[in-house]
């Protein structure tokens, strides 16, 4: 109680200097994505650009861009200018080619002068949203950092480089964690820092995925334990000695523009065995196109309120239910929203909207960490600490027992020698 009062009292002073901005975003119910209206320069037509966590570049179409969408025109802008620097944006949905350009950006009631963006004039194998993207990615190379958050801080509109995407409230909050999330369950983990990230994802928010688990089980029937290395062991009821999870130890990309979960091809048989064959045998048809392997299923036996899929990130466990990973098609059938690339050399997971839309997520540039707010997740840090504590206690007890045995043996030897000497006298 006293501690809570102290925290509240301290927050009265610490929050006074917090600067933040808040924007309304458009997250249609029939869409997996969120958009924000933006004006560039003196152009009177707004661009409904998509929030993108895989690139730090904001880009919009130029008149040369071969799509029937609103396009930026320098002749309609007083301060607009372009450079000869060509920028190539490749984040998995095709390649965009454009020129680094500068002009004012107006979002909501905020205007940023001399904002840098990419004016797209061409593309290659592009199958993504053509109206433009708002770059919210993490630039691992600082010289490539052109995102909105950096510009807001330079203009003293925020003092902390953090943003929150809230699909429920339809808000993009930049500069702080909103107060209404303070009582919401939260788990946090660090940004992926390994060197195995593909070049196309160098601007992406990502994590290290440790394990995945497929199967329809009630959460309360799952037992979580740890082995001697601290790795999570997942066991179902009546399956004491069998670890149901599968090691991943691979980077996972958080992509707000991707409507699926992408698994490396080597996990295809694992998913088929634990979901398709075990629970949906005869109900799903395996499909293949030029790039992917996927499954189309009949509705029968799809339990939308059961857990089908779990992920272990750091010491956190995230659950996805049937309603998260099955989507009804126009023909009445259901598509499993897990896809596998035909290319077996792709080893990166991509977490798109089936995962990201489940929680409210905060992306922190300064701390290089990501926080999830909501239900359907378990923080195992305390369980792990308890496991390590009891492991330490057991080691201490065993050490004491070993020392007692050693001293006991020495005592017996000494007594035996002394008795022998006495008998000799």
What does the model show?
The protein is an alpha+beta fold and 425 residues long. It has 2 domains: 17-179, Cathepsin D, subunit A, domain 1, CATH 2.40.70; 201-357, Beta Barrel (Cathepsin D, subunit A, domain 1), CATH 2.40.70.10. 20% of the residues lie in helices and 37% in strands. The protein contains 6 helices and 26 strands. It has helices at 2-14, 148-154, 268-279, 322-325, 353-356, 381-424, and strands at 21-24, 35-40, 47-52, 59-61, 81-90, 95-107, 110-124, 133-135, 162-166, 171-174, 186-190, 205-217, 222-226, 232-236, 246-254, 261-262, 284-288, 292-297, 307-313, 316-321, 326-328, 334-341, 349-351, 360-364, 369-373, 377-379. Strands 12, 15, 16, 17, 18, 19, 20, 21, 22, 23 and 26 form an 11-stranded mixed β-sheet that branches. Strand 17 (284-288) and strand 18 (292-297) form a beta hairpin. The longest helix is centred in the last third of the chain and has 44 residues, at 381-424. The termini are far apart. 33% of the residues are buried. Residues 1-13, 238-242 and 382-389 have low confidence and may be disordered.
Break the fold down into its secondary structure elements and pairings:
Blueprint: H1 2-14, E1 21-24, E2 35-40, E3 47-52, E4 59-61, E5 81-90, E6 95-107, E7 110-124, E8 133-135, H2 148-154, E9 162-166, E10 171-174, E11 186-190, E12 205-217, E13 222-226, E14 232-236, E15 246-254, E16 261-262, H3 268-279, E17 284-288, E18 292-297, E19 307-313, E20 316-321, H4 322-325, E21 326-328, E22 334-341, E23 349-351, H5 353-356, E24 360-364, E25 369-373, E26 377-379, H6 381-424
Parallel strand pairs: 3-8, 4-7, 15-23, 16-22
Antiparallel strand pairs: 1-10, 2-3, 2-6, 5-6, 6-7, 9-10, 9-24, 11-25, 12-15, 12-19, 13-14, 16-23, 17-18, 18-22, 19-20, 20-26, 21-22, 24-25
């Amino acid at each position: 109680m006293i501690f809570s009062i102290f925290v509240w009292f301290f927050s009265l002073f610490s929050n006074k200097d917090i600067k933040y901005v808040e924007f309304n975003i458009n997250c249609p119910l029939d869409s997996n994505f969120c958009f924000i209206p933006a004006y560039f320069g003196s152009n009177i037509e707004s661009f409904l650009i998509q929030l993108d966590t895989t690139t730090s570049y904001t880009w919009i179409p130029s008149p040369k861009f071969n799509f029937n969408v609103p396009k930026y025109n320098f002749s309609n802008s007083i301060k607009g200018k372009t450079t000869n620097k060509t920028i190539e944006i490749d984040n998995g949905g095709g390649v965009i080619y454009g020129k680094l350009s500068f002009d004012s950006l107006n979002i909501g009631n905020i205007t940023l002068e001399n904002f840098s963006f990419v004016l797209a004039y061409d593309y290659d194998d592009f199958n993504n949203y053509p109206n433009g993207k708002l770059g919210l990615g993490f630039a691992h190379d600082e010289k490539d950092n052109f995102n909105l958050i950096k510009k807001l801080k330079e203009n003293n509109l925020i003092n902390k480089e953090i943003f929150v995407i809230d699909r429920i409230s339809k808000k993009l909050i930049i500069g702080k964690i909103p107060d209404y999330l303070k009582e919401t369950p939260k788990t946090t983990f660090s940004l992926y820092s390994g060197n195995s990230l593909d070049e196309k994802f160098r601007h992406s928010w990502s994590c290290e995925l440790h394990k995945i688990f497929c199967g329809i089980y009630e959460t309360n029937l799952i037992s979580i334990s740890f082995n001697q290395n601290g790795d999570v062991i997942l066991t179902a009821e009546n399956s004491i000695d069998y670890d149901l999870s599968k090691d991943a130890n691979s980077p996972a990309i958080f992509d707000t523009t991707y409507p699926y979960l992408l698994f490396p091809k080597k996990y295809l048989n694992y998913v088929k065995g634990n979901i398709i064959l075990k629970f949906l045998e005869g109900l799903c048809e395996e499909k293949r196109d030029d790039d992917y392997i996927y499954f189309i299923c009949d509705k029968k036996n799809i339990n939308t309120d059961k857990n089908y899929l779990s992920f272990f990130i750091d010491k956190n466990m995230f659950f996805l239910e049937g309603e998260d990973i099955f989507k009804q098609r126009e023909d009445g059938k259901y598509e499993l929203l897990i896809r596998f690339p035909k290319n077996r050399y792709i080893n990166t997971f991509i977490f798109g909207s089936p995962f990201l839309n489940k929680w409210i997520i905060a992306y922190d540039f300064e701390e290089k960490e990501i926080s999830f707010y909501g239900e359907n997740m378990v923080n195992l840090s305390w369980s792990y600490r308890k496991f390590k504590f009891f492991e330490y206690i057991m080691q201490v007890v065993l050490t004491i027992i070993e020392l007692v045995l050693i001293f006991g043996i020495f005592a017996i030897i000494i007594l035996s020698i002394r008795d022998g000497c006495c008998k000799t006298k």
